[in-house]
Design goal:
The chain has two helices and two strands. With 85 residues, the chain is mostly helical. It has two domains: 41 residues; 29 residues. Strands 1-2 form a two-stranded antiparallel sheet. The two termini are 33 Å apart. 0% of the residues are buried.
Length: 85
């Protein structure tokens, strides 16, 4: 844990980074959920005309992005390991 002084204030760098993560994670995740729900509204066939291929393309694009997100979090949690024989 690192502590630093800036303009007369003492900051706990680890805690500030955690607070920033929580703040951004909540904001961005809620925004993503809202947009996914808006995309879901497109499934209403009373209001929109689309093909099964259109729906599959949308779902594939969203699935691909979620997979990429999982990989980012899984890789960042592994850390670097030294190679040994």
């Amino acid at each position: 844990m690192h502590v630093y002084l800036q303009m007369g204030h003492i900051f706990n760098m680890g805690r500030d980074r955690r607070q920033k993560f929580v703040e951004l994670a909540e904001k961005r995740t809620n925004k993503a959920i809202d947009y996914i729900r808006l995309v879901g509204n497109l499934a209403n066939k009373n209001n929109y005309q689309y093909t099964d291929a259109d729906a599959k393309a949308i779902l594939r694009a969203l699935d691909d992005e979620l997979k990429a997100l999982r990989v980012k979090f899984e890789q960042s949690n592994k850390g670097e390991k030294a190679f040994k024989l």
